[in-house]
Amino acid sequence: MATPTPEIEVDRESGNFKYEESHKYDAGYGLTEKTIDYISDVKKEDDWIREFRKRALKVFEDKPMPTNWATKDLENIVFENIRYYLADGQRAKKSWDDVPDDVKETFERLGIPENERKFLAGVEAQFDSEAAYSNMKDSVMKQGVIFMGSTEALMKHPEIFRKWFGKVIPTGDNKFSALNSAAFSGGSFIYVPKGVKVSHPLQAYFRINAENFGQFERTLIIADEGSEVTYMEGCTAPKFDTATLHSAVVELVAMPGAKIEYVTVQNWSSNVFNLVTKRAIAHEDAVVKWVDCNIGSRLTMKYPGVILKGKRARGEVLSIALANDGQHQDTGAKMIHAADETTSNIISKSISVGEGRSTYRGQVHMPKHLKGCKNNTECDALLINTNSRTDTYPAITVRGNDNSVQHEASVSKVSAEQIFYMQQRGMSEGEAMSLSVNGFVNDLTRHFPMEYSVELKRLIELEMEGSVG
Amino acid sequence: MNSLTEEISVDSETDALAAVKSDFQEYLDILDTAPSWWKDIKKSAFEDYCALPDPSRKDETWRFANLKAWRGTNPEFSAMPSISNAQSLIERSDLIKTYSGQIVIADNQTIQAESISPELSAKGVVFTTLKKALSTHGALIKDYFMKQEVDLGSAKAAKLHTAFLENGVILFVPKGVEVEDPFIVYNWATSATVPSLPHTLVIAEDLAKVSLIEAQLSADESTPSYSCGVGHIFAGASSKVQLTVLQNFNEQSVGTQISSNITGKDALVKTLSVNVGCKQYRSETHGKIVGSGAHVEMLSLAVTDNDQEIDQRTLQTHDAPHATSDLLFKNALRDKSKTIFSGLIKVAEHAQQTDAYQTNRNLLLSSDAEANSLPGLEIEANDVKCSHGATTSQIEPEEIFYMLARGIDRDAANELIVNGFFEEVLERIDVEELAENVRQLIRSKFKK
Question: To the nearest whole number, what is the mean pLDDT of chain A?
Fold first, then answer.
């Protein structure tokens, strides 16, 4: 097997570095009412937010782990050994020059400022619990777009955000949404006014720097009637020996005729438990598209969903998961049809390498009073090594005789003939494998924004190194 | 255990079990002529039954199911009723005319058991009732009775089945013996007070070939019955086994059928279930491949109407390489009926070159019908071809239009399409007489 070239080696480890911690505010280990008071005090939150957090804490404590259907690996999370809030007490900066050097350097190394100049309309960069940098192009701001941190937005624009906050994903939805509701900090709140089409993507970048830390960002995007927005998020963390927890809640509201595209490239280090709840409400004629790539983390459990609430609303999930040694990518999608003529499409591709395990879990629900609803689900899994593993667990409920669903899944391996063919033409086995795997995900990646599709291709090439044989 | 509420809940639980416990004690007393090892099997099964929890909403194996019919209902076990209409039941047992052996059972009592031909007996074929086999073929029962795992959710029901089991059939085909005509067993439910517990055990030794048809029927349309059946197939190397279960209990009844097969090297096992009856019916089918080169086919068709619920759980286990399995479950739903299909293909790490398919097709014929589909895969080997497909849809208006335009009225057009929908399964039935009977059954369901 060819060894990776030095250039590639650097890239592969691009997220694996850390700086000394210097946190002014540290809520300590474990999550109690005291921790919540501490977070609320530091953030100078209104009483209703504090109450909301405390109620959520009770729900979190009461809810059992979902291990009756999910992996037992969840039991390895020790909630007492996690720090729930770490911040330096500074407001997010509008200019990279004002960002503290080590934090700035972190994001420089990850290429964020460069990307911002090149193709982004706005960037928020979160470092542990709070945003270190937040800026939006003037032209976009002039259109009335709001793009700021969660607590700030709840206090500055309650009339917009409070109405939907916690409504798409109620606190009690699951144990980890309750945890997030209790400890949330950071994330983006975005409002796009009626008819505004944000020409370039808005981006959030999530970075965990500290050890034994839990990041609980909360994102709420509201696209008002006829507006359009693309939001991209990336995540990395240095690799620690101990477990890190990332548990986000992302709520999207697409008002009539609005379009939201939400792109995630998740490349957490392999000690991160990534337990994320993502859901959207799509009103009449609205379109919500989740593009979800999971490459990193130890265990990811994430099933982006769309509640198709208005007539002719459309939901889409395009998902790519790559599970390498020691990783379990438990991903999927939920489509809840709640209005006539709503359509949904789920395409999921997973690749299991080495001892990696990828799981697809899906839910499609069509109640009986609806007419003309359609769903298409395709899940393809590719197994590379003999000890790789893949599972598929869809759940489809259809009532009534005017709706239709189709679901297909297949599992296969890279065909020996293909590899042989390419080797005959002078490619190494590794290159051939890489090309073949890229071909497998290609019909999905071409739906991605350009920059991401290139990035993803490269990541897959890297992850595939050393996986043959 | 100090709190009042806990004590109450414990008490009420013992109450619920008390009735069935005394039923079981009475039952054991009646059994005094049975061999002691048989009684021991029953006692230990009953202990397990009492200890096992009822299915709960949290169990993935019971997802979407309406649990009311199963939970906390310890069925009554009164004394064996006398079968007054035995002769008419025997006459009505006429699904096929050509068979190698026929047994008719009503409420767990044998009402007809013709001896098999001297040629088959000479070859060592055994086709007899379980009741008789206890004294004549004790060794076979000891080796094979309830020796397959119940792993799809009805473990508790299976224990109840074992504890109260009265009768059933055993079909044993020795090494190298091929039997052309099928065997057939009828299980009639006639009484509301005695649960029907059909038990079918098929043992095919290496290179043997055999086919068995089991019909589960109600004597009339109005008496509600409870049935809990178990069917096990042991298919030796290179054997060929077919088992068809045709379930048409009346729509007052509740039933469970737990079926599984263990398939050896290069063996071929084909199971088919036809489900049209019961108010609520659950079938669990596990095809377990333990020898390389085996091929297992699992077919099912169901027509539901009114408020029927048919719950199907399947598992295809590949524990050996180079084997294939193919599952096809088709359901047509009318009125307010509901079906659940939950299937899983499990491929072990060493089961390379597996070829496994799983298809569930649901045809919704009314706006109140509900089809649930949970097709699953768990794959640990990499050199496999596995796929599943699930579709739920209705009859396309274009198809109806095509036929209307050719002078076929709407009802007839619908029926034709439904018939065509099932033909994919029906044409895989080897016994043409049986296939025709099933066609009739489907048609009659639409005439109701």
Answer: 85
Question: Do residues B278 and B306 make contact, with C-beta atoms less than 8 angstroms apart?
Answer: no
Residue from B419, B20, B30 nearest B195 by CA: B20
As a whole number of angstroms, the longest Cα–Cα distance in chain A is: 69
Buried b / exposed e along A335-353 (16+ C-beta atoms within 10 A): bbbbbbbbbbbbbbbbbbb
Looking at the complex, report in whole angstroms how far the Cα of residue A21 sits from the nearest Cα belonging to chain B: 42
Residue type, B420: G
Cβ–Cβ contacts within 10 Å for residue A42, how many? 19
Across B11-28, average pLDDT:
72
Element (H, E) at B122: helix B118-123
List the beta strands (DSSP E) in B13-100.
none
> Is A398 within 8 Å of chain B by CB?
yes
Exposed/middle/buried for A114, CB within 10 Å: 0-12, 13-18, 19+?
exposed
Reference B210, options B122, B290, B100; nearest CA is B100
| Range B368-379 average pLDDT | 90
The amino acid present at A409, given as its one-letter code, is: A
CA–CA dist B186, B183 (Å, integer): 10
- Interchain contact B393–A (C-beta under 8 A): yes
Q: Residue A151: what are its φ and ψ, rounded to 5°?
A: -65, -40
Unique residue bearing structure tokens 């071809």: B385
Do B413 and A437 touch, CB atoms closer than 8 A?
A: no
Q: For the segment A207-254, what is each residue's pLDDT rounded down to a tens digit?
A: 888 888 899 999 999 999 999 999 988 877 777 778 889 999 999 999
User: ipTM value of the model?
Assistant: 0.73
> Closest Cα partner for A396 from B285, B302, B331, B69?
B331
What one-character DSSP code corresponds to residue B411?
H
Long-range contacts of B436-444 (CB under 8 A, 24+ apart): B437/B95, B437/B96, B437/B246, B438/B246, B438/B274, B438/B301, B441/B246, B441/B248, B441/B274, B441/B276, B442/B276, B442/B301, B442/B303, B442/B418, B443/B415, B443/B419
Q: What pLDDT does residue A2 have?
A: 36
Chain A contact probe: residue of B340, B346, B378, B392 with most A CBs at under 10 A? B392
Are the C-beta atoms of residues B222 and B190 closer than 8 Å to each other? no
Amino acid at A59: V
Q: CA A93, CA B259: separation in Å to the nearest integer?
A: 66
Best CA proximity match to B228, nearest among B191, B257, B250, B259: B257
Closest CA to A360 of A368, A352, A370: A352
Binary contact (B383, A413; C-beta < 8 A) = yes
Per residue in B385-400, pLDDT tens? 888 888 988 888 899 9
Q: Report DSSP state, residue A73.
A: G
For A274-311, how does the pLDDT look when each residue is reduced to its tens digit (9 = 90+)? 999 999 999 999 999 999 989 888 999 999 999 999 99
Nearest-CB residue to B382 (from A383, A400, A409): A383
